[in-house]
Fold this sequence. Notes:
The chain has helices at 22-31, 35-51, 61-64, 69-79, 92-108, 118-122, 126-142, 152-164, 183-192, 207-221, 230-234, 241-288, 294-308, 314-330, 335-339, 356-386, 389-394, 403-422, 424-439, 445-509, 517-557, 573-634, 640-656, 658-673, 686-717, 721-736, 741-751, 768-785; strands at residues 146-147, 150-151, 756-758, 764-766. By secondary structure, it is mainly alpha-helical.
Amino acid sequence: MVDYHAANSASSSGQTSYMEPESDWDRDLLLDPAWEKQQRKTFTAWCNSHLRKAGTQIENIEEDFRDGLKLMLLLEVISGERLPKPERGKMRVHKINNVNKALDFIASKGVKLVSIGAEEIVDGNAKMTLGMIWTIILRFAIQDISVEETSAKEGLLLWCQRKTAPYKNVNVQNFHISWKDGLAFNALIHRHRPELIDYDKLRKDDPVTNLNNAFEVAEKYLDIPKMLDAEDIVGTLRPDEKAIMTYVSCFYHAFSGAQKAETAANRICKVLAVNQENEHLMEDYEKLASDVSMQACVRVCERESMRVREHFLCESVYNLSRSLYLYFISNADSCSRLLCSIPGNLRCGNRAGELAGQWAGVYDQLLINFIINNLTTISHSATELYTGKEAMLTQKDYETASLSEIKALLKKHEAFESDLAAHQDRVEQIAAIAQELNELDYYDSPSVNARCQKICEQWDVLGSLTQSRRESLERTEKQLESIDELYLEYAKRAAPFNNWMEGAMEDLQDMFIVHNIEEIQGLITAHEQFKATLPEANKEREAIQAIQAEVQKIAQYNGIKLAGTNPYTTITPSSIDSKWDKVQKLVPQRDQALQEELGRQQSNDHLRRQFANQANIVGPWIQNKMEEIGRISIEMNGTLEDQLTHLRQYEQSIIDYKPNIDQLEGNHQLIQEALIFDNKYTAYTMEHLRVGWEQLLTTIARTINEIENQILTRDAKGISQEQLHEYRTSFNHFDKVRNSPTVQQYLYWEFGRNVVCKTDSGTEVLSSFLLSSIYSLYMFIFIYAV
């Protein structure tokens, strides 16, 4: 975040710093994330409006100022001063030196830069670059603005308020929301150049059209470049204040320059008119000089007194008249020269000396006329000042005003106080006039004294009300600033807490799918950790609500009617409580769901163990039986009839084992119904066991069938027991070499992979099924040969 501040070097003027407080910058960042985009466009356009005078411009504000060259050029253009010669090298040290020269120049103008260094500008730090340009704009475009004893931002705001006051639907109170509908921009242009805009055709509900109209007219006819986008302003809840101030300052400089030229022209015209009027007056007085009668003198003096009565204090009129009288008495010949000193550059002839005797008779009456005329004028002015002001000073509009509105009311009140101070001399003149009339024994002095007393009393009341209103406004401003700080603190803490609650609600309502106890226990552990954070979270909620309660307490204690909701956030205390209550309800629901899932997983684990315990018995049993069948079929243990009997007994034992297979099938059915797809407790699956069981039954049946065939063949061919013994000996010899690599390779290529299998020790041997088949084949060939 950018942190910068500049102080006004003109401390002798008694004005406060023209730079805004740092907290204003922080609040913009919190409430309006689009500030950087608006400032980048506005500041770039403002810089180009000056750089084009030097025949150049910038495209990217953070990139084009990195080497410091265009930054130094910009400062030279806007200040009219020469900066030290820049370094033309392209190394980083050269760029840093150039930027430092520019920053030193800014500092030399009384601007204090904090946290803005040359390295950040050279590195292209966007926020730091924008902060530096804003500092330049404040110093060279806004600081020198002065309107009615207010300067910088306040002066610019007061100027806008004065210029747009007559326009409907325009109420400029700040440099963000007040400009959003575009009417204020159009009003400024229409006030100075009414021929450029038809203001009556503008509609408040069409801000985009209003803004584009003002921007286009300003660019085309006033040479003010387009620095803002209508869509950005309308689409933003609170337009960027610095961007608006920068653009409005261009209007001030454009119109103030034209106004100064017009004022100079008017002064020249006035001087010419005064000279022409003086020439006419001299001609008139040359004519009047021929008539030195008392009536002519009185008429001239009365006529001229009417011309000067609004421009002179009663005391100066009296002194001027008294000096004129004494001069007539002492030196009648010089009367014409003294009369020429009366304002108006009037000249009389030298024949006025003979009027000295007649002047004394009319002097007092003439002086009274002067005083009464001045009394009437000053009294009327004081009465006009008082009329309507008492109601204005006693209204309590500040009770429902916002902080920005209070500041505007204070500015207006300060302007009123300045106007009131300017009339102080006139009220004092009224007392002096009453005193003069009393000394001249004016016949209506009591009426004048009563009139003077009433005006003085009204003036005292006005002063008391003015002081009381100032105190109320300042007290309310201080209270609203406290409330504003609390609002900001509330927004800073409520935003992350609200995000935490929304994330918590989402997690608590999130569906979960687990496959074993370990996974559900992990979720339960995480949930317990979350519940452990709830007390701290509740403390944070209570602290946030306490901030809002403090706001209500301050407002209630001081009788402040809060204008609306928190300007920095849309998160209300009620919404926080509502979400917190929902979190509190969701926590036990999540507890219940997790415990239910834990029970289900425990049940599933029991099913896995139950199936595995049986499968780990049945699997090896089937494998052992398969191997035993193979051995029985090739070993020479008794006659074929003995082997047949033994095999049938073996078959019966296998059939008797069937209930174990059925029980295993039942457990497997329970696992399927529970949607269990894995079992870490056994390597056997029901499919494998079914295949093994079927293969076992098939093998024993086929072996029995082969023995029976051997018996039938033996009996049919008449083979003796010795011949069978020879056959078995030959086959046993073959069985000894069945594991030979040559035999295995041959059988592999002849019959495929299924002829070789692995024992429990990992040794590859010929399968029992293959051995049995080979044995039967070998016996058939042997018997056939015999």
